[in-house]
Amino acid sequence: MTRVNTVLGTISAAELGFVAIHEHIGYGMPGCELDSRWWKTPEARYEETVPKLRLFRENARPWGAATFVEATGICNGRDIDYYKSLSDKTGVHIVASTGFVGGDTALPFFEQASVEYLTDQFVHEITVGIGKSGAKAGIIKVGVSRGFKMKALDKRIYRAAARASRISGAPIFTHLSVDSQPALDIFAEEGLPCHRVLFGHADDGVSQGKINEQALLASGARIGFDTFGYDLELPDPPFWGRHRQERLQHFLRFLREGRVHQILASADANCSPLGWPGVKGHTVNYLFEQLIPDLQAEGIGAETIDKLFIRNTAEFLTLQPFSDATPQPHPGV
Ligand SMILES: [Zn+2]
């Protein structure tokens, strides 16, 4: 039986339906809740968020259910009780993350945390629950700190994530695909097969030319085209934006090279950003309103679209623990 952890309980992968693999209910830097300009009442946050999730649920109806993977992680505004309430109200499955967006967004409390401590923390959140919420995390977030280079804490977080993934079976997704060699080395050293890792933001405007796509593909990792919709054509685009056609053609190149099994797509939108204005006009629903029509116009068929948003995602999110008895590939064999 397949199992996926959502904030309202563990379900079968067959129940996920259409999956947006990297999204945010609300992401903010640690401490944003202390800024009085950006302090939103719970009512204001609900008002901004519920219609977007309801529309997501409606848009996903042809595929059955709707699943929103919340990529915020520890320290950046993760709020499990709030996610539970949103999921209950809107009928959208929400998968929460353990882990950190990057070492540089971890609070000072975690600065000196050891790999063993971090592994225990991640495994606890996936197998026992997050705080007193009763909800279990379904995926592990890791990332590269600002500066496009992995720092010491980033590396400890990646190693702990690899160990926690082997123990709990939860997959890993990364913030950024740059400086990937240390990550690939860590996953190899820890015996975690790279198809359990989604290297994210491979499509963003600032990472182009800095990603070793060949090394990632050769490792068997999954590649995330997960910033769809941050288009430079928007009235006020963010610094990581990219021309819509350029991103689309990049994605199509992977599809036409027969890499569909290795790629995943999402929008990385915020329903209600925390402590920053967000990007106006960008929501998870871009996937239905722009991306899928763009793919269809390029001759991409329903089977490929189902693979991207239903089958790849279900396979990736399914908990797959590796026991020590599981034979591991060994160098030289
Ligand atoms: Zn994100």
From TrEMBL:
A single MF term (Gene Ontology): hydrolase activity
Keyword Metal-binding in record: yes
Keyword annotations of the record: Hydrolase, Metal-binding
Binding annotation for Zn(2+) 1: 22, 24, 141, 268
Keyword presence, Transferase: no
Residue numbers bearing the N6-carboxylysine modification: 141
Listed name of the protein: Aryldialkylphosphatase
Species assigned in the record: Kluyvera genomosp. 2
